[in-house]
Every structure is written in C-alpha cells, then in structure tokens.
Design goal:
406 residues
Amino acid sequence: MNDKIFELMPWLFSPLAIVGAGLLLAQLLGQVVAARGFPKLYGAVIAGLIVGVSGLGLVDTALLSQFQELFNAATALVLFEVGRKMDLQWLWRSGREGASLVVASLLRGLVTFACLAAFGLPHGDAAFIAVVLIAASPIIFASMAADSNASGVATFAGANMVGIGNVIALLALGPALAWIKVQDAAAASFAAELGDQLIKLALGAAIALACYGLYAVVTRATRAPARQRPGMLLAVLLMDLGLCSVTSSSALLSLLLMGLLLRNAEKRDNVFQAQVKTGLDIGYALLFMMSAALVEVQQLVNVTTLGLALLIFAARMFVTRIAFLGSGAWSTQKKNAMAFSMCSLVSFGTLMVDNSLGIYSGLGPAAAQVMASLLALNVLLAPAVTWWGLKIAGETHAEEDYDRTN
C-alpha cells in the first residue's frame, strides 16, 4: 500500500483493528440474519467472506497467524464444553444407544474412505482424510446448539456423539500420521513414529489430570463459592492449553478430558456455563469469521471435486442414520434430526488445536484440493444443516428478546 492509502485508512495496517472490525461486522450482520429467522452466526460467515481472501483480502493466513493463541483459546473453550457435556454414566448404561453413537462415527470414516478411493485418490491420502472425517465439528455443533438454545434427548445424544467421534478420530490419527511420515525416507520407523504420537496423547491426558487436580485443590483449600470458581477454572484451562502447546502434546484430548472430569468427577454446583456464555458467543463468532475468511470460493468451481464433496457430506449423514436403526430409544424424527446435526466435519487443525481451517501439508495435490472443497462447504453449508437438524428435532427454544420489552 502507498502512503496515501495509509493516510486515509491507517487502520488497514493494524491486524488487531482489522480483526476487531471484522468481528463487529459479524455481530451486526448476525443481528440482521437472526431477525429473519436464520442462525445469527451466519453473520460471522458473511463477514468472513467479505473481509477474507475471497472478498476484500484484508484477512488472510498471514494476518490470522499473529492471533493464533487467541484462536486456540477460543477453540479450547469449545472443546472443554464438548467434554463437559459428555455423560459417561449414560453412555455406559444406555447399551444400544451408546454403541450406536460409536458405530455411527466409525461408519462415517469408512464411507468417506470408500468415496475417496472410488474417486481415485491414493489409499494413504484417502485413509488420512477418512480418519479426520470420523468426527463432527465440535465448533459447528456447539455453536448451533447455543445459537438456537437447543436442549433435549437428540441434542444430548448429539453432544455425546461429537465428543466420541473426536476422541476416536484423535486416537486413529496417531497411526495414520505415523504411516504417512514413514513414507519419507528420512523418517524413523513406524513403531517409533507411532510411539511419538502415543506419548503426545499420554502427555495431554497427564496435563489434564494435573490441571484438574490443581483446580480441585485450590478451590477446596480456599473454599471458593460457586460464583468465583469459573474464573479459577478458566485460568486452569489456559494453563492446560499453554502446557500442551509447549510440550507438543494433544491439546484436544487434554481439553476434552478437562470437561469430562468437571462433569463426571466434580460433585459441587458449577455455574461455568452461565458465567462464560458471552465469552463463548464471541468465541464462536471469531472462529466462524476466521474460517470463512480463509475460504477460497474458487475451490468450489471444479464440478467434479464439488460433486465428490457433496457426495461425502450426504454419505456421512446417511450412514449416521443407518447406525441408529438398532436403537428403539429415539423416534424416527429424532434419528433423522441427529443424522442431519452430525453433517459437519472437523479439520486436521481443530484436532491439533492449531488452526481451525488447517490442511495437513503431507497430502497430495488432489487430496488437498478435495479437503479444501470439503472445508469450504463445511463453513458455508454445514452450520445451516446442523441448525435444521436441531430444529426438526423440536428441541430449539427461541431466546427471549429482551430489547422488545425495554
């Protein structure tokens, strides 16, 4: 940019101002789309497309990399919430229902592999993408559930399935990454690479146990009341994320485990959700805006690749619905709703908690193009389908419009 532009618009040279302006635009557009009955977080998607690489080009990967820790913190809150909503006792006692959630996750990976292999992708690349697509996006499901104030049996089961799918994908990703890395002649053996991945998982779990133990000791030693514990918990979550970052351990597993421990081991009242709702809403908007800003719309121009991406989306929903056939606890309508609400896909970056739209560089050109198309559709299409799934379940509750009563 020349000096004249800087004189007229100096804020364009401030990355923080650009992100702030984009976030403000996301909030404004969110109010507009919400007034028309659509998910308000689509305001963040529209804002991201406007300021991102497909629009004005103000926000790109280089700019967002300067705020990686901020985005990691927002993702950490979402992953913690996913873990906090997993009910281990219900999963153990539910029998067929809990098993069907596991089967649905595995089938999503298998059908993805079948589609990609049939398309002609190398089996290694197809297997890697299939492992990642076992999981549904915790960010999209949690944000759409919060946006529509959804609660009920389908939402509860969906939240548990998101957690299960992410754990399975993370565990399967270890061998997949090890296998890809050993294709490099300079890499260590498969056993050594797999051992390295397992150490990262174990270390992430150890950090979660240590941080939760610290939280439990501090809050009990100080006899902190419920209203003060959320601040302490947030501090410990940041410690967890930071320790995982510097040790290169599994932040996703660690944060999910923190949420699991709070729900299943903590017996005291907790008001964490009520205290950080505003923070989560801002975090959702920030993550949606960032993801949309990095979407390259031209990735959807290739008809063949777009068709494959749409086929994978449809196939994943279909096999998810098939997995529920053996369960009699949910009605047909609830089963259909859960299949729709699990349409979203997670990215490699979210599994690693380093970039919510990250694409693993080890993929070949064709696989990278397919993954880019999938992630673009995921940002543009999956939130609406997830929201529709929650809606047809009959479990959405419109929030009271306080502004109209003032």
